[in-house]
Write a structure and sequence with these properties.
Layout: H1 2-8, E1 11-17, E2 20-30, E3 48-52, E4 58-61, E5 65-66, H2 68-72, E6 78-80, E7 86-88, H3 89-92, E8 96-100, E9 103-107, H4 111-119, E10 128-129, E11 132-133
Antiparallel strand pairs: 1-2, 2-3, 3-4, 5-6, 6-7, 8-9, 10-11
């Protein structure tokens, strides 16, 4: 994240998409407080945003950091985010290759366990969550 902040903050990236012939622009915005690892500031949980410049929709990005407290207590490979989510390195790495919306991407190694812990067991099979409807591609 430090590299992205130093060299790519507020940069716009153009992507050609199969369903958008003219392509789409996305801006990477890095929070200037991303270097502060504190979980105390409830308004400072997001480290960056990937923003669709046409629609304004965005994806929040939170950085994984070593969880020094847990590691000092003997939890090997403990990680955390500023939003108080906790993981082990083996939950995340090695990343798995997959396809999402006809686009190659990477997902956490234990993606099913991570999703179940965050959203419940039904999160892997339900196609409705709160007000969102997920359609198959």
């Amino acid at each position: 994240m430090y590299f992205l902040a130093d060299y790519y903050n507020m940069t716009v990236h153009h992507f050609k998409l199969p369903h958008v012939p003219e392509g789409r622009d996305y801006m990477l915005e890095i929070n200037p407080y991303m270097k502060n690892p504190s979980t105390e500031d409830r308004n400072n949980k997001i480290d960056a945003r990937w923003i669709d410049t046409e629609t304004g929709q965005f994806i929040d990005i939170t950085s994984l950091r070593p969880n020094h407290t847990a590691r000092e207590e003997g939890v090997e490979g403990a990680l955390m985010c500023k939003d108080n989510h906790h993981y082990l390195e083996t939950d995340i790495f090695p990343l798995r290759d997959t396809i999402f919306a006809d686009t190659p991407c990477k997902v956490p190694y234990e993606y099913a366990a991570v999703l179940e812990e965050e959203y419940g067991k039904e999160s892997l099979t339900k196609d409705v969550y709160e007000k969102f409807i997920f359609l198959p591609f």
